[in-house]
Amino acid sequence: MTDRNRMPRPVLAADIERLAPSAAEGEPFARLELAHATAAAVVAAGRGDTEPCDRMVRLAETVGLDTLAELWRGVSGDTLPGALWTLYLLRTWCTNHGDEVSRLYRAGRALAPVDEVVAGVHDDADPAAVASLADAVLTGVYDGDLAVALERGAAFFRVVAAGRDYLAGGGPEGAAEARRASRNRSCAESLTRAAKGWRAGTLR
Length: 204
Known about the structure:
Number of helices: 11
Distance between the termini: 39 Å
Helix content: over 70%
Number of domains: 1
Radius of gyration: 17 Å
């Protein structure tokens, strides 16, 4: 495909691709400041209608998940860049491993009925339904109540964690699954704190 035939990229996506190497090579404080600045720019662009919402939802596909990782991975999960990283990672997981996510979610939904309602996955919770949930959460970040979107993501992680606990067997694999469940709960707690921060006007 020639450059002439390439689809035009959003300006924001091009900026993110340009800035990501700087984040990887910079000093810790500079990397942290760049993470916060780019996350704020992404949210402002999405919520300010300067970028179409569907493009923002697909940002990880446009620029590459590794590019977002260079900018945002490693930042505290209860910050704006940390929360965005978690939600884009969730969407990638739901899109690429829908069968696994669906199995875990279905196993955990009866053990976390309140969180299941908050997450709002379609009743059959098949791979298409969990992928749709991940899209809806990111859409809510840019075209809805951002705090509610974060809380839906948190609830989803808690249901999945409950499913991991239920399905975990004994031995090394069971222990590994328990560790994954703990990481899922940690993601949920961080997203919940981020939602509170957004409502308080302190999230950055």
